[in-house]
Structure formats: C-alpha cells, structure tokens
Amino acid sequence: MNIRDEALSRLENFSNNNLGKYAAERNFDPGPVNRNNTSLLSQYISHRIIDEQETIRSAYSKLPFKKIEKFVQEVFWRTYWKGWLEMRPQVWDDYNHDLKNLHNELTSSNYKEAIEGNTKISCLNDWVLELKEFGYLHNHARMWFASIWIFTLGLPWQLGANFFLKHLLDGDPASNTLGWRWVAGLHTKGKHYLAAEWNINKFSSKTYEHLNLNEQAQAKHEDRSYDIQPILFDEINSEDSLFVFHNLDCSLHLAEKEINFNHYAVIDFTSILKKERYSQKVLDFKIRSNQYLTTVLKERFNSQTVIQNKDDFQTITKEKSIKNIIFPYLAVGYENDFIKEIKKEFNIYYLARDYDKHCWQYSTKGFFKFKEQIPKILTKIL
Fold first, then answer.
1. With contact defined as beta carbons under 8 Å apart, do 252 and 48 qualify?
2. How many domains does the chain have?
3. Within the chain, which residues score under 70 in pLDDT?
4. How many CB atoms lie within 10 A of CB 146?
5. How far apart are CA 328 and CA 347, in angstroms?
C-alpha cells in the first residue's frame, strides 16, 4: 500500500468510527497503544499526502457541522500557524540564530538527561521514549512536555522545539516553533501554559506522583517584536519550465485541475534534513513520501528525474534549456532556506494553492480572530 492509500484508509476509518466522539475524548492521552480518540492524520496532512480540504470534506460527508466543529478547528490550527509564520519569517530566522548561540548548552547534563529521558520527572521520561519510538505525542502531552522543559527544567525553549521538530513525523516549522513560543508566553505576550500534576493525571492513562513541577513560574519575556510582512504570491511563468514536486505537498497534482509545464521532476530534501540531524524515523517517513511522488512522476508525467542538490539543477536546466523552475509553495523551513539560497542562480517561482491564499490572510492576529472567519472559509472551500 502506498503512503497516500494508507492516509486515505486512516481518514476513512477515523471518519466512520471515531469522528463523532472526537470533541468529547480528544483531550485524553491514553498512551501509544490505543489512540482511537485522535485521528492520527497529522503526519499525512503536514506533508499534504492528504490535504486539509479533503480532510474537512470527508468529515462533512459523515456528520453535521456541530458534531465535527472541534475537529475542523483543529485542522485549521495548522493552517493558521503556517500563515502567521509566513507573514513573520524573521521568527524562524531568529530561532535558528538562537540555536547556534545555544550550542554549548547541548553538552550540559540537564539537557542530556532531558533528551535521553533520564530526568527525575517520570512523565517527561515516558514522553521522550514515546516520541523517539513512535514519532508522535498527543497534543496535550506536547503542551505538558514543553511547559516542564521550559519552566521546571529551565531549559531554553528553542532546544525543546528543535528536539520535537527532529523527532515528530508531523513536525513542521510553523506549528512547532509557534507552539513552543505560545507555551513559553512569547506568542501571546505574557500568556504562558503551566503544566500541573493534577491536570496530567486527569487526562493521562498513567498516574504520576511527586512530579514537583514549577506551577508558579512567570511567562518568558523577549524584547523582540515582529511586524507583519505581506505575502507576495508569485505570478507563474511557465515558459521553458520545470515543475519540481516535493514531499511537503504530495497531492498538488490532485488538487490542481491542470498542471501544464514542459518538464517535471521530484526534489529529494533528505540530504538537507540529515545535515539538520533529523531522526531516522522522520527521514524514513519522508523517503516513503518521495517514493509515492516518484511513482506519480513516472505514471502521470512520464519522467524519472530526481534532483538531490544544486548541481542537479544546473545539469538539468542546461540539458533541457530550462528558463523557469516552479515548486509547489514552500513555507518557512529548512527546505525553503535551501531554495532561497539557489534562487540567486535560477528563476524560481512558488505555486500557491487557493486554499492557502484564502486562509493565510486571516492569520494576522490570534487564532480566535482566525476562528471567526472559519464559516466564511468553509463556504469557499467546500
């Protein structure tokens, strides 16, 4: 079974059997063995193996809106985060700059104990092992984890965000970076999230005692502020063109009615992510996504061209007299950082989906302002 069929099967199973109970049960973390209360679709949606629209449409085909409203909102959270960061890309740049400055912290015993699951906080140790084994944590556990990391262990939020991004199958720079900033009290200034022992025990399958969490900590503070930068979507020039698929949007060929370019290829970002020390589990998932795309490339576009690096771009543009290279829109992240660098040498355009163009305009403030626009968005996308 290819990875898209796997995603569609999981979507259908969840929509038929667990969607109706999602709102009531979603906050409980039963552990990795039984996750029927969550969809487990995030890893597929984050790579658009299935996209947001077909996920929402599937839910609408099963139940009335009142019963699926909470699930629909959770799908839109990822969209909101992405739009927010696209308008403030400096947040990503500052985060990576901070990581470089925190390099010496990587040798501290406090940090090593945390990422190895050897702290005195038993729940955190369990979540570290679960994250490494399964590439997934329940959303509630992610919040508890981040709070304990920042406020009880006193570790920099940037290092925690980096640990998550490199191990989560559904990790993407927007929801991950901004989620950690939100817990710290930096996304919404002064409003932070504090994990509490009673709350962990109420919503976890296990009971944890004597956690000794810092439940009185103050929100983190920074002097930086981030102004909105309008997103300038590209006008696509398809003359003498090469369209390059990537595994952060594996279904654009299904969403777009017509894709008409001269040549087609797939880019493999694996070597870039290896340099950033992504876990093998995450890399393997992305490799499966690439395998699906190479099959699509061959069967639908009669091409077997796979690009690994800048040299490959230079070779193919010369051989095929390529003037313009088009990618499915690449949002803020390491993959986009790489393409930004080679934009200095090639004419590169990003093809944005109508869904993103429409939704991201509402990501200027907090999610609750975005949420007010969801009914309007739904009339556009359903």
1. yes
2. 3
3. none
4. 24
5. 14
347 and 312 both lie in a single domain = yes
For the chain, the distance separating the N- and C-terminal CA atoms, rounded to the nearest angstrom, is 28
Widest CA span in the chain:
67
Contact 238, 217 (CB under 8 A): no
CA distance 289 to 248: 9
0.90 surpassed by pTM: yes
Residue type, 380: K
Domain residue limits at 64: 3-85+360-381
Domain assignment present for residue 20? The answer is yes
User: In whole angstroms, what is the distance from residue 289 CA to residue 328 CA?
Assistant: 15
pLDDT in tens, 232-261: 999 999 999 999 999 999 999 888 777 899
Same domain, 79 and 136: no
Is 73 inside any structural domain?
yes
Q: Are residues 117 and 76 in the same domain?
A: no
Is residue 213 situated within a structural domain?
no
Cα R_g (the chain), whole angstroms: 21
Listing DSSP states for 250-315 in one string gives: TTHHHHSS----SEEEEE--HHHHHHTT--HHHHHHHHHHHHHHHHHHHHHH----EE-SHHHHHH
> In this structure, are 102 and 193 located in the same domain?
yes
Identify whether residues 137 and 184 lie together within a single domain: yes
CATH number at residue 252: 3.40.50.620
Helical spans, DSSP H, in 26-89: 42-46, 52-62, 65-86
In angstroms, the CA 336 to CA 106 distance is 26
**What DSSP string describes 348-368?**
EEEE--HHHHHHHTT-SS-HH
Give the pLDDT of residue 255.
Answer: 80
Q: What is the DSSP letter of 204?
A: B
What's the CATH number where 41 sits? 1.25.40
Any bridge partners for residue 350, and if so which?
327
52 and 110 fall within a common domain: no
Task: Give residue 316's identity as a one-letter amino acid code.
Answer: I
Q: What pLDDT was estimated at residue 34?
A: 87
Given a contact cutoff of 8 angstroms between Cβ atoms, the answer to whether 183 and 144 are in contact is: no
User: In degrees to the nearest 10, what's the CA dihedral of 56, 78, 179, 182?
Assistant: -90
